[in-house]
Amino acid sequence: MTPDMCDVTRARHGRPVHHWRRDVVELAAVFTAVAVADGVANLIGHGPDGPALLVISAIALAATAGFHTWWARRHGHAPPADHTGARPAAGTRSAGPVEEPGAGADEVAGTCTLWRMRTTVKDEPGSLAALCSALAARQVDILSLQAHPLADGTVDEFLLRAPAALPAADITRAVSRAGGASTWIERADAHDLVDAPTRVLGLAARTALDAAELPLALRQLLGRCTIRSLPGTPVGGGPGPKPVPVEGVLEDTVMRLPTPEGGVLTVERPYLPFTPTEFARARALVELDSRLGPRIPHGRDVLTLPEGSDITVRRVDTGDLAAAKEMHERCSPRTLGMRYHGPVGDADRYLRHLLSPRFGRTLAVQTTSGRIVGLGHLLWDGDETEVALLVEDDWQRRGIGAELLGRLVAMAVEAGCESVYAVTQASNTGMVAAMRGLGLPLDYQIEEGTLVITARLDAAPAASRPTYDTGGQRLGGAARRD
Fold first, then answer.
1. Exposed/middle/buried for 33, CB within 10 Å: 0-12, 13-18, 19+?
2. Residue from 373, 378, 365, 357 nearest 263 by CA
3. Which of 160, 186, 403, 412 could link 115 by a cystine bridge, Cβ 3.0 to 4.6 Å?
4. pLDDT tens profile 188-243
């Protein structure tokens, strides 16, 4: 009898319970086995075919043992069957991307591509499910989804993570077969991983702090688009833009929104119509900007020039219009002509437009007595960005222009601009030297005697490089912020 025969199998009220029925059955089996063994021994010993029967029995036992070994090896790693119907416990999974079955080491290492895709589907049950199934069949992971309802359908905007070897054309083809129409796709980056409500709140906060952030916020909210702000009264005179109603106008790929000064903010995006949801978000940002009114950050930096004089660099707006006009009066006609490329008498007319945060950012250099001696403008020109400088004659060649330019370029980098351009003349050696002092790749183009210098901002951020004046001498002293 094996030890298992007398093992305790359960307990009742704390006392062990033995199975006496099982003991009786096992004892009967032992007696039966002894009787069968005695019969087999007599048959082999006294029968004529005893030896042959013994050999056949040995072969049968060997074959049975071999079959049992093979069966155990094939099914020995199978999980035990669960007859309770309960779901097996889920294993622990680390946060982050999960390797798909059969994925190679390269895919796990991050050879995936992020895509932003937008497509229009029918507003009926199962249309989105068919789209998701088509993407899943190509190992495309949906990271986020936004729905933009329309009158005759729904525009679904996806953030996708696809294998790097899968081209965009294959994704759009699969979406088209699944029922998607007017599909648009472009590369995305890590910034798109932020969910839409968080991104909108962040853009609203930036707009609330600085009026010049509105065009940048709209561009980040709506993607690749061209934004133009037209003043109610053009600088050169003539009729202003056609007024738009308070609620704005949405026309396919163009939206027009009013500004508090009577101007019009135009947002245009080629080939991709705006949805009512996008229009409502843009209108909410513009309304927030209008309610808060003109505003700029009040920080300022105090710098020391090489000869020991202190200057202050700060943001300015239309509230500094009078001081800026006084600087114009102290500038020579040659300096004003190089800056504004036109009649000197028209210079003052541009100032209100240039100082308005609606059209960009303006930095001013101020002396200890409060006089403005230098202006630097970063102007939003549609989908391009212009930089412009004006330094009073008596304060030129001291590094002020280069200091302003370096700060403006750093602002452009922070705003996500791809390049900045300056319109000047070949004889303006100070501006040309200041652009070269940025240490950025430059492109030169001459148009009817006017020199256009474009600096590409895809190199290292300008804020991390030292700024030099036009003579190559670095602006002396450390800056302190007030």
1. exposed
2. 357
3. 160
4. 877 777 777 888 888 888 888 888 888 888 888 888 888 888 877 666 666 667 88
Q: What is the three-state SS of 65-97?
A: HHHHHHHHHHHCCCCCCCCCCCCCCCCCCCCCC
Dmax (CA) for the chain in angstroms is: 139
Q: Where are the alpha helices (DSSP H) in 223-275?
A: none
379 near 357, Cβ under 8 Å?
no
CA gyration radius for the chain?
40
pTM passes above 0.70: no
**Sequence-ordered strand ranges (E) for 252-317:** 254-258, 264-268, 300-304, 310-315
d(CA 120, CA 116): 14
Query: If you count DSSP H runs as helices and E runs as strands, how many of each does the chain have, helices first?
Result: 13, 19
Token couple for 172: 């759009």
Cα–Cα distance, 386 to 341 (Å, whole number): 15
Domains of the chain: residue spans and CATH:
1-35 (no CATH), 110-189 (3.30.70.260), 196-292 (no CATH), 301-481 (3.40.630.30)
- Average of pLDDT values for 159-187? 89
**What is the DSSP annotation of 122-187?**
-SSTTHHHHHHHHHHTTT-EEEEEEEEE-SSSEEEEEEEEEETTS-HHHHHHHHHHTT-EEEEEEE
